[in-house]
């Protein structure tokens, strides 16, 4: 099925457009306004290139070598040398979706008319995205200052027909060969173009945008998991009442609590112990305080989305072209601190939400705390181990998430002969956040799998319509209910896939409508 193109104009691309291009393979087209803006800025660069006065990035070297004036006959070589030397990444290949997001966001900055590239160069970048030609970018090479230099340089290398790419079928090919097969010709970079192609925070921003989308889904799914745990552990839903939440008016907390109320509505299990005979005074923190923890994560995520929106509206380059004034100016907008801080904050909330999820899970397995359920939810405890080791797996992931929560953005290693003496490490923050998002997905999936077994064991008491729908989705996906021990890893992976795809939320939404 052909997808509508994403039109890249002078204005910012949206997070939804980033996802469409990065993950869904949507084609890309330059808007007419962008082409006109690019051409205006190019005129400024060409005028400065002909002037006798040195202009940084146009007729000089770069970084610590900026004091050398480069004569006109060496400037094409200057741009090629810049791209070739900076394409110095190392390690495993970065995921295709990350590279496509990076390319789209660099194109979005080019389209603002503040970088000075030629329209043909910007068009070729759009064509690579449309033909799904993805340059090979490596894990290591960016310090998150002067932008994501090495990752972007590997993309720029493909524009000049060099380096390795993956074609639309994922086959590794020389860039020149893939371009030719798509009917495209490489460009010869003119003054400033090499620098304009590589001096941006696009990689870390692309990963931030995708992480925000993933975490929005996961935090709502964590509410589903918490509701199932409260229900399965005979907890109360009264603590989630809106009048109690209003006493501490955090919007994320209110939304999470409202979700829990909706998810537990109509539960026969909750109703069974709501009367005067219930002797439990209050639930454990991991149950009772779920909205406070999940809500704080939501509010942090909301601020990260605000920062991402500002960055999507930015034109990050150095030097930057100011066409209205006919000049090019050096600046520090390439520093990745605003993005890096958000990436680190999100790794912290992933670890915290996973931590409370694991604590809820563990309570199901302990007969001193699970209110009448068999040890480890096993069929025949002692003969069967039940979900004992599933919790081990969950705990191992949570421990990893705690390590990943250590911020990258507080680190800095000076580079470029001390010219670049404070860097953001935003790319590193983004890479570890991707691992954290995957880890949170796994932790929440194991809680849901565990809680579903507990709800089955509460029969003949009936769960709520919403949580019952999740149990059905698990069973339909091959995650069996209680019974003798069996090979558990495939069931864990099936649960992870349901969470990651959004199918758990879909099952809930089909019954009670959209969660907040």
UniProtKB/TrEMBL annotation:
Pathway in which this enzyme or protein is active: Amino-acid degradation; L-histidine degradation into L-glutamate; N-formimidoyl-L-glutamate from L-histidine: step 1/3
Protein family according to the UniProt entry: Belongs to the PAL/histidase family.
Protein EC: 4.3.1.3
Top-level EC class as recorded in UniProt: lyase
Residue ranges of coiled coil: none
Organism: Nocardioides fonticola
Protein name: Histidine ammonia-lyase
Signal peptide coordinates: none
């Amino acid at each position: 099925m052909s997808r509508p193109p994403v039109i890249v104009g002078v204005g910012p691309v949206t997070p939804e457009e980033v996802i469409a291009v990065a993950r869904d393979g949507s084609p890309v087209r330059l808007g007419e306004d962008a082409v006109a803006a690019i051409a205006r800025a190019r005129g400024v660069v060409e005028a400065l290139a002909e002037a006798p006065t040195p202009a940084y990035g146009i007729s000089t070297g770069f970084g610590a070598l900026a004091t050398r004036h480069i004569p006109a006959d060496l400037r094409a070589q200057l741009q090629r040398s810049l791209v070739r030397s900076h394409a110095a990444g190392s390690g495993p290949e970065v995921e295709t979706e990350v590279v496509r997001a990076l390319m789209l966001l660099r194109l979005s900055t080019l389209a603002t008319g503040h970088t000075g590239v030629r329209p043909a160069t910007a068009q070729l970048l759009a064509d690579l995205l449309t033909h799904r030609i993805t340059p090979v970018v490596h894990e290591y090479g960016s310090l998150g200052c002067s932008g994501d230099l090495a990752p972007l340089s590997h993309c720029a290398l493909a524009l000049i027909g060099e380096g390795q790419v993956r074609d639309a079928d994922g086959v590794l090919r020389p860039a020149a060969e893939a371009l030719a097969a798509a009917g495209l010709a490489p460009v010869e970079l003119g003054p400033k173009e090499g620098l304009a192609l590589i001096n941006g925070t696009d990689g870390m921003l692309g990963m931030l945008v995708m992480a925000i989308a993933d975490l929005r889904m996961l935090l709502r799914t964590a509410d589903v998991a918490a509701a199932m745990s409260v229900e399965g552990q005979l907890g109360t839903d009264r603590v989630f009442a809106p009048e109690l939440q209003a006493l501490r008016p955090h919007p994320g907390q209110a939304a999470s609590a409202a979700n829990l109320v909706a998810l537990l509505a109509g539960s026969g299990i909750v109703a069974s112990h709501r009367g005067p005979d219930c002797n439990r005074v209050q639930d454990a923190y991991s149950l009772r305080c779920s909205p406070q923890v999940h809500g704080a994560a939501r509010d942090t995520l909301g601020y990260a989305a605000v920062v991402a929106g500002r960055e999507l509206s930015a034109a990050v380059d150095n030097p930057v072209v100011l066409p209205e004034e006919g000049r090019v100016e050096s600046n520090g907008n390439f520093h990745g601190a605003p993005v890096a801080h958000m990436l680190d904050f999100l790794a912290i909330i992933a670890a915290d939400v996973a931590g409370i999820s694991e604590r809820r899970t563990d309570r199901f397995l302990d007969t001193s705390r699970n209110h009448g359920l068999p040890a480890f939810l096993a069929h025949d405890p002692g003969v069967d181990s039940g979900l004992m080791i599933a919790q081990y797996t969950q705990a191992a992931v949570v421990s990893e998430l705690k390590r990943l929560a250590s911020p990258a953005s507080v680190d800095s290693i000076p580079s470029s002969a001390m010219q670049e003496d404070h860097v953001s490490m935003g790319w590193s923050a983004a890479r570890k956040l991707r691992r954290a998002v995957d880890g949170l997905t796994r932790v929440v999936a194991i809680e849901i799998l565990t809680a579903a077994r507990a709800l089955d064991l509460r029969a003949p008491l009936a769960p709520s319509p919403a949580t019952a729908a999740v149990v059905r989705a698990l069973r339909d996906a091959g995650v069996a209910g209680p019974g003798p021990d069996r090979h558990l890893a495939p069931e864990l992976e099936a649960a992870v896939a349901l969470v990651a795809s959004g199918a758990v939320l879909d099952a809930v939404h089909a019954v009670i409508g959209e969660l907040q």
